[in-house]
Specification:
heterodimer; A: mainly beta; four-stranded antiparallel sheet; 0% helix; B: mainly beta; six-stranded mixed sheet; 10 strands; globular
């Protein structure tokens, strides 16, 4: 079974631009979560989607948004990029059909550099 | 959501058993405890998950006392390739909070 795929793997953008990252979950997984990882803040939860609905959101500004399509693929968008948005963005998928215990499968991430 | 506290780093030698303890004093009734492993420039990889008592799989064991305020990940006979960051986290309500992680360095 193919793992979680993320595109693109690397991206360089300029301050003020916007960016869209894509995530394809493992076949059959309906939940997709997004995380931001930086050396200073570690792994931070952005949001989680299940069956095209955002179920939970982390403490990030409104510039960070996402969506999920009917085939469970997900995109996240960051508008008006800032230097501090430079990070590794990770996507994780899971069955997540119950609260609490679930196993997430992470993709390789998209390395975003904002100059 | 419960915050987790782990040692920042640990050193070990090949062939030794490594135990990493995590504190999660405010764990909720519905929360599960999960451990992930992460190598540089890769996404975290699931190791093991438990709710109470002891869980064992082919790579690790997880010990959870009755009060569930802490947990211990046990890695038997580590090798150089086990050098990585290990995250303890609690998950509940469809939201996962990662702590700072423990950087394990295995020496030859």
């Amino acid at each position: 079974k193919a793992g979680v795929t993320q595109t693109p793997r690397y991206l360089i953008k300029t301050r003020g631009q916007q960016v869209t990252l894509s995530c394809s979950p493992i076949s059959g997984h309906r939940s997709v979560s997004w995380y931001q990882q930086t050396p200073g803040q570690g792994l931070q939860f952005l949001f989680e989607y299940f069956s095209e609905t955002q179920r939970n959101k982390g403490n990030f500004p409104g510039r960070f948004s996402g969506r999920q399509f009917s085939n469970s693929r997900s995109e996240m968008n960051v508008s008006t990029l800032e230097l501090g948005d430079s990070a590794l963005y990770l996507c994780a998928s899971s069955w997540q059909d119950r609260v609490g215990g679930y196993e997430q499968y992470f993709g390789p991430g998209t390395r975003l550099t904002v100059t | 959501l419960a915050k987790t506290t782990q040692p920042i780093s640990m050193d070990s030698y090949e062939g030794q058993e490594v135990n990493i303890t995590c504190s999660h004093n405010n764990i909720a009734t519905n929360d599960y405890i999960t451990w992930y492993q992460q190598f540089p420039s890769q996404g975290p990889r699931f190791i093991i998950q438990g709710y109470k008592t002891k869980v064992t799989n082919e790579v690790a064991s997880l010990f959870i006392p009755a009060d569930r305020k802490s947990s211990t990940l046990s890695l038997p006979r580590v090798s150089l390739s086990d050098t990585a960051v290990y995250y303890c986290l609690v998950s509940g309500g469809f939201k996962t909070i990662f702590g700072a992680g423990t950087r394990l360095f295995v020496k030859a």
